[in-house]
Input
Amino acid sequence: MSAPRTIIAVNGSPHVGFGNTALMLEMLRPSIEAAAMAFEVINLADKEISYCIGCGLCLEKGRCWINDDQASIVRQLLQADGVILASPVYFHQVTAQMKTFLDRCLALGHKPRPAWKPGVSVCVSAGWGETATGHYLASVLRTFGAFNTGTLAAMAAGPGEFTGREAVEQKAEDVARDLIRAVQEGRRVPATDEDFQYYLFMSSLIQKHQQSIMRHDHQHWQEHGLYDGFEQYIQQETAQTPGTDYDEIRQAWIEEQKAALKNRKKQGPEKGSKKQTVQDFSSCEDLIRNMPNGFLADSSPDLRAVYEFEVSGAEAFTAHLRIADGNCTYHEGPAREPDLVIRTPAEIWLAVARGELDGQQAFIKGDYTAEGDLGLLMQLKTLFG
Ligand SMILES: Cc1cc2nc3c(=O)[nH]c(=O)nc-3n(C[C@H](O)[C@H](O)[C@H](O)COP(=O)(O)O)c2cc1C
Output
């Protein structure tokens, strides 16, 4: 009988056995074991792993020379059928334990293929940073040649105090299911711009340093045909939907668009696109805001004037219209130096504009008042039709 497929999880939390990260990993276990796969959790807190000193020798040799527990964990990860990187958020990022381990895996990040295997990231915070950190762990998986089939992220302040525990458990089931299917069926997740950017960056970096520090990486990329293109690298081909001739569909669509455009030009402006009239405005503010649209520039081309409206009643607001250089513009609030101030209840101004009330009569009756250059009041009708 062949050995069962194995999923290895690396947990960066110091809370071994009882922490929230550990609890989330245990949420994945039942599905994994039900699929007859072995599930092992490696707790970095139980391991001796020194800091990366940045010597770069791993790039030349293919592995780190520092002798501690890092090497055996990497061996297990490379042999596993699926991998999980899990960490709580410590100051907006993974824990120091996880980061130290990842730094020591630099060599894996330069030889991502064919280490290609499905992976999952797991992350928990007290309430700030689990989404970004989960995404970070997913992109680390990418640099190691794994592809992320899902991320389980949750919030939990104290041990076991998950926000929406049931939802976290359900998500755990989904994440485990997708990981299992990817392992069993050799599924891929669709490549994304992040895969593409990583590929472009890494291939150019390694080619640039192929004679020096990245000689070993360069050989690896050559041997595995990784330079042959992105599709070769991601092991997925670009393909059209079978039986569909997109060229033909596109050509027919272009012809249709041309004919429709020609037709529209022949018919002139569309029906229903008529100009707005004062009857269309239900509020006084809307009416005054739209007055510039009805401005008849030719009626007084040299006029420079500022009309201020102080509206009360059903609507209370102040706005002003500025007329200069054949243009009329609307502005909220009072003007600095208005030439004419019109003080009116909203309903009176609407009624005057709609022709339901005679403007002059209403002024004489004191329904609204005006202060300043009253000649401008008389000019309103000519200016706005
Ligand atoms: C040093 C330290 C830093 C932390 N930083 C954050 C943080 O930036 N954002 C946050 O939401 N929680 C933060 N936390 C809280 C943990 O992420 C949270 O308690 C988590 O559930 C612990 O998971 P664990 O039990 O698996 O270790 C921090 C906790 C510690 C000890």
Observations:
- The longest helix spans residues 246-267.
- The pocket of flavin mononucleotide is lined by residues 13, 15, 19-21, 88-92, 124-129, 156-157 (CB under 6 Å).
